[in-house]
Structures are given as structure tokens and as C-alpha cells.
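CO-FOLDING WORKSHEET

Operator: S.A.
Ligand of interest: zinc ion
Run index: 288
Mode: holo prediction, single chain
Checklist:
[x] sequence pasted
[x] SMILES validated
[ ] output reviewed
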Amino acid sequence: MKGWMDVPRATLFCETALPQLQRHLKERGIWVAAYSSGESVAVQWSTTQISQLVESLTAFLTQEWLVSYLQQQVYKHTTRDLWPELATQQVDYAVQLTVHGLSRQLAETLPPVRQVIPTLEQALTSLLAEQEDAILSVDAVIQFRARTFLQQAQVALQEVLRQLEEDQEYQAFVDHLREKLMAQPPSTQEVHVFCTDTQVWLCYPGGELVQDEEILRAAQWASDGSEVHPEDLAMSILITRSPPHIVIHDLTQSAPWPNFAETVERVFLQRASRCGHCSWCQDLEGGL
Ligand SMILES: [Zn+2]
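OUTPUT RECEIVED:
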């Protein structure tokens, strides 16, 4: 009969996410006791359970541990200074998006991320099986054995944060335009907006261009001494006229985000609609 000393044991240190590690292992039925120092957990397993323990630890490192690690990266280090405009909630959201993206990559087994699981499993198996009463830092296992993976995770997080900040700036711009629109008395005439990759122009339902005088007025309203961009001018005209309905003819092929048509939709909401590839669009496409 095997005695207490025959049962493999290990002491696991985890600076990044100890409570999560404890919960994770307990939920999977692996015997866990926390030491009073609060810095480590003790685990015991039967020799037949080693693969279950290794799988559990690997899953922990690529999920809960990774979330905590990325959050700490954003909050503790210089990264935080780069994104001062983002609230805590948004940072957490960015971390979740990043981890979700990486999980999807894991699921799709794209290199080199797919290499991280066998690498971690192999490292953990040898560290746990080769020593009696092993003492190991799970942070060190992932930080040393999967360094490239962590670097990729950080790059992915930076990209998600950058996009969030861009979205936030765009939303502030849309809100500003909506405020201006609310201050304008609405007119009665529908306006048609045509967008191509290089131009934006406005017509009345009969097809005649919006008059020069109005453009001039809108240009004065729009300019504060700086050069007026054609799209800014077109938006100023639309806001000044405040049409009850706008029909958008979007002929763009490769306009960068956010394109003018989308901005019109977000500013005018239900007052804007798409033409649905009308005969005008079909004629224009023939001539483009
Ligand atoms: Zn159309």
C-alpha cells in the first residue's frame, strides 16, 4: 500500500494570478491547499493524474493567467500612459477581445500560437514528474518557455487598444456633428449624397447639384481659417440644410474607414438611407 510520501506533490508559485490558479485547480478536482503566506498553492495528485494536472495548468496559463497578465501589463507599465483616455472598463474589454482573438487563433491552430500548448505541456510534465516535491513558478514556465507567444499577445493588445481609441475619437466627432445638427431647423427638401473613392457631391431629387450660394455659406460656416476638406464641406452643407431625408449613393470601392457614407448614417440616423444600387449608381459605375 502506498503511503503519504508516495503521492506526488508540488508547490506552485504564481505571482500574477494566485487566487485564479487555486480556483481553477479546485474546480477541476485537483487537491489544493493554500499556504499561509498566500504566495503559493500546494497540489497533490496520483501518478495517473499527471496528464490531467498538466492540461489544467496549460489551460489556466493560456486563459485566466493570460487575462491577468495582460491587464497588469496595461495598468502597471508604460502602456497605460499611451492610452490615458481609455477607462478601466475599456482596458478590460480590450484584454477580453485580445484573449478571445488569441483563443480563436488557438482553435484554428495557426502557427506559431499552436506551438505554445505542447511546449507548455512538455515543460510542465518534465518539471512536475522529474522532481519529488517540486517547487515551481508557473509565471516563469510561461514567461520563459512561451516568450514569443506573450510578445504576440502584447502586440495584439496594443492593436486592440489603438482601435478602441480610434473608435472613441470617431464617436466623439459624430456626437459633435449631431449636436450641431440638433441646433439646425430642419428643411423640407430631400438631398442625395454621392460618394466615390475620390469625390463627394450633393444633389436634389431632380438631379441638380446643391447651389453654389449654399456651398459658400456652408464653407464659411465650416472653415475656421483652416483648409476645408470636401467631405467636411459636404457634411456642413447637410447639417446646415438639415434635410428630412438623405439618400446615400455609395460608389466607393476602397475608401478608408470610416467612410463618408457611414458618417452620414451615424449623424442622421433614421433620416439617412441607402439607395440600394439605383439606376443612377448603375449609370455612374459605367462611367467611373
Ligand atoms: Zn444610387
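REVIEW:
The first helix runs from residue 18 to 27.
The CA atoms of residues 120 and 147 lie 11 Å apart.
[x] output reviewed
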